[in-house]
Amino acid sequence: DVFMTWNKSENELKKVLDNANTWHPNIKLEYKIGKSLPFLDILLTNINGTLSTSVYHKPAAEPYIVPFISDHPRHVFENIVQTSLRRAIKYSSTFQLFNDERRYIKSTFLYNGYPSSFIDKIFRKFFSGYISSRSFLPFIDNEDQFLHMRIALSGQPSRQQSQVEMRIASLTTNNEHLIEELEKKQEVPIQEKKKPNEFQNKLIIHYTHEKRFNTRKRDLHRIFQETFANTQIIETKLIVGNRNQKSTMKELIRKCPRQAILKNKANPNGNHKKNRHPQLNQKINQKDNQI
């Protein structure tokens, strides 16, 4: 997929694209021309020469996500909400478009059974990670906060950093103090040395051993060689192993007792228990002797 803007007439653009379709018989370009077009999952709109972007939703797509009543872990629902908000901030070019997408996100989650209190809690938690606000409302107050979050999430330089970089571009050799100012403004992250991955360029496959799978290893290696011959994937080392199947005896019998049973419990009152009912025990012994 290719996206482009064109400042000339629409007829001239069609001539260029039709001419490009004649370059190769197996390559045909299908194009769409308009002031509002979807590109992947972004909707681009030309408003009097200003390009506006927002999240694109297919008209035929239903607002269905993972239901709240499903058996997924709790953090899965939280991640879905945060991912939707993160995409809305990065794709929305204006504060108004973001608010429209935020309302759409909340209505979608309400439609799929998410409690309103849970949605508002995740909204506040997500926004508090980027901006400091005393508001109890689960949304951004003004456009400055939105721009701050958008810059932080998209990795764009801030307005102050852009001004400093423009000043640095026009520097002469005598203006060294501005270079020091730029170095103070920008923090260069220190990349840690990554340990070598011992599983790199290795494909490991495990399966449970059965008698009918005696030729499994040989068959997998043969299929791998035939499928990926003369490709870069053939350089990957294929490792095929099997796990022993547990017998019924190992599944049903616990050979080692629990550690708590093996330990001797000390009697805090002494080595011998006191006889609290000596007369009763004496009568029981007499009856046993008579029997």
UniProtKB/TrEMBL annotation:
<protein>
    <recommendedName>
        <fullName>Helix-turn-helix domain-containing protein</fullName>
    </recommendedName>
</protein>
<feature type="domain" description="Helix-turn-helix">
    <location>
        <begin position="64"/>
        <end position="124"/>
    </location>
</feature>
<feature type="region of interest" description="Disordered">
    <location>
        <begin position="262"/>
        <end position="291"/>
    </location>
</feature>
<feature type="compositionally biased region" description="Polar residues">
    <location>
        <begin position="278"/>
        <end position="291"/>
    </location>
</feature>
<dbReference type="Pfam" id="PF26215">
    <property type="entry name" value="HTH_animal"/>
</dbReference>
<dbReference type="InterPro" id="IPR058912">
    <property type="entry name" value="HTH_animal"/>
</dbReference>
